[in-house]
Each structure stands twice: as structure tokens, then as C-alpha cells.
Amino acid sequence: MRTPMVADGGAAAMSMALFRQIGTPRHGGIVLVADHAGNAVPDDMALGIAPELLERHIGIDIGVAGVAERMARFHEIPAHLACLSRLIVDLHREEDHEKLIPTHSDGHVIPGNIGADRTMRIARFYHPYHEALARWLEQAQPSLIISLHSFTPELASNPAETRPWEVGLLYNRNEAPARRAIRLFEAQGLTVGDNQPYSGKLLNATMNRHAEAHGRDYLAIEVRQDQIATAAGQQRWARLIAEVANGVALRPA
User: What pLDDT, in 10s, does the model give residues 128-177?
Assistant: First the structure.
């Protein structure tokens, strides 16, 4: 497992892992990317929030790291996992997106991000992450990329919103792989969201950049967090996603 390090941000700053990679990609195989798999905060930065918030959905995609690790180790789908919390820089946003450095998240104010040095964070975290991911994918030339995320069953800021889907498939222009995956997940008796709980037409930054811009097929998968909050759930979903991804990769368009 390779773990590149972030460049030192100053005399008081401690280097930290920006991402980690599990497994070795097979040329033309399937790979997995998880932009929100970690909740690390650099030692020289303070968000000004209660530490337990980093364990909630505003700080990390709950369950994703466990699923991705099992997919890499037991289903031969290598993974590129971010270690940085989305509250420092949201790696799954465009560089100029207003929420790249969130000052509010699901009803919580993030004081340390108000007036943050945007240019510094982009140079220190955002660019190195995406440059490393680009090199990894260029070497792998995958037939299919899985972009794995999880979503909370309800938002604290909008508890009346119903989120019945156990899994959702997001897509922007290239929708054919997602539509095949929707059918395969539904065949397992699952309630599947078609561009739900978010639309990939609006939120698809990493796959727009690393997949659609290069003509690569992908599955942007959102699993509801209660499905993968336990080791048993992570094992089940690692198998389900691996089976669906292999089915999509092997079937003609």
C-alpha cells in the first residue's frame, strides 16, 4: 500500500497522508475511487468544531473506507482513497465551487473555514490529490471506474426529506453504465435511485474530470449509510458492488 505525503505547510505543520492506495491496478481492469473516505485534519489547522462531528456524515462518508478496503482485498478492485476530511477541502467539487471549503454543513457552522486561505488549501491538498489520481488512472487505463460515496438516511437540516433508496447511481453525460447497474441492483431486490439522492448532472466533479473528460466508463455509486455502518454490511455491499461492476464491465453497451 502506497501512502504519499502532503508537503510540509510550514514550520509548525505536520505532514499527513493525503490519500492511500490499496492493491495494484490491472491494465484494463476495474478500479475504485473514494474522495470522502477519510476524516483527517492537518495538525496545523483548526476547524473549530466538536471532534465528534468529524465522525458524522459532514466530515466523512460513513462506511465507504470499509467497503473499499474489502473490495480491494477480496474482490481484486484496487482503491484510491482520500484521507483528508471533506471539511478541509471537498475533493469532489470543482476547483471554483463555492462549497469547496464549506463554511456550513447540514446545519453546523465551520468557524475555521470562514475566511480560509483558499489558494493555499487548493495548492496543498486539492491539486496534489487530483494529480496523483490522474497518474494512477493513466497507468491503469481502467475499463471501469467506481466512484464510491455514501449518503445519510436523513439530513438534520431537512428531516422531512425521504431517502428510501438503499443505493443510488449518479451520472452526467455518460449514463449507459449507470443504467445497466441500476437494473442489476434492482434484480437483487434493492430500491435504487436514478440520479438520487443527488443528480450527477450537478454533482459529478471527480468523474467529470477523470472519467467523462477521458471517455472512461464509470459508476458513481451512493450507498445509504445505514447499509454499510457495520462490518457485516460493508462485506455484503463490497460483494454486491463488485458483482454489479463486473457485470457492467463485461456487458456490451
Answer: 999 999 999 999 999 999 999 999 987 766 777 788 999 999 999 999 99
pTM of full prediction above 0.90 = yes
Q: Report the half-sphere exposure of 229 (CA within 13 A, side-chain side).
A: 11
d(CA 217, CA 178): 9
Distance of alpha carbon 251 from the chain centroid: 25
- Give pLDDT tens digits for 234-251: 999 999 999 999 999 986
Cis peptide before 197 (omega within 30 of 0): yes
Which cell is 165 given? 433508496
Q: How many domains does the chain have?
A: 1
Q: What percent of the chain has pLDDT over 70?
A: 91
> Any idea what the Cα angle at residue 84 is, between residues 221 and 224, rounded to 5°?
30
> b/e for 70-92, b at 16 or more Cβ within 10 A?
bbbeebebbbbbbbbbbbbbbbb
Those residues with Cβ within 8 angstroms of residue 237's Cβ, 6 or more apart along the chain or in another chain:
63, 67, 223, 227, 228
Domain ranges, residue 89: 19-250
Could you tell me if residue 244 is inside a domain? yes
